[in-house]
Amino acid sequence: MWPMRRTTIMLLVVVPCLFGLSVWTGVGPADDWVRKCQNRQALLDRLEVMEAEVDRLRVAGRSEQEIARLMVPRRNEAAVVEQSGMTNSELAKLRERNRLRYGDPAGPTLQWMWHHHGGNWHNMVEATLDTNEAYDFICSAWFDD
Asked: d(Cα 119, Cα 75) in Å, to the nearest integer?
């Protein structure tokens, strides 16, 4: 009976306190996770700016193709912010995966996006503004409102 109570106490009291220690002091076992979430917030901030620019370009009458040609490289540049919190080994794995999947270590190329979205320029533009909603939700405690 006691081991079950000890596990319950650990889950309900100790673990949240350790995460709180990392959040409030910057020191604790969840530091890496908190930093990754803070980097994620920086990426989301950049994507908000990109979304406003996409809207401005659409109002100005620019074609979806022109917008996609601008936004695909910018999305890869924005991802560098999030990657700044990665270790060298994590970054090397990500770049290798990107090179194998997209043909470019930075991320999806315009050609890859065009083929992936069946030549639909509008979908390509929208994809540059998308993120992984599950990951965003996990980090939502550290996001600005």
From this structure: 18
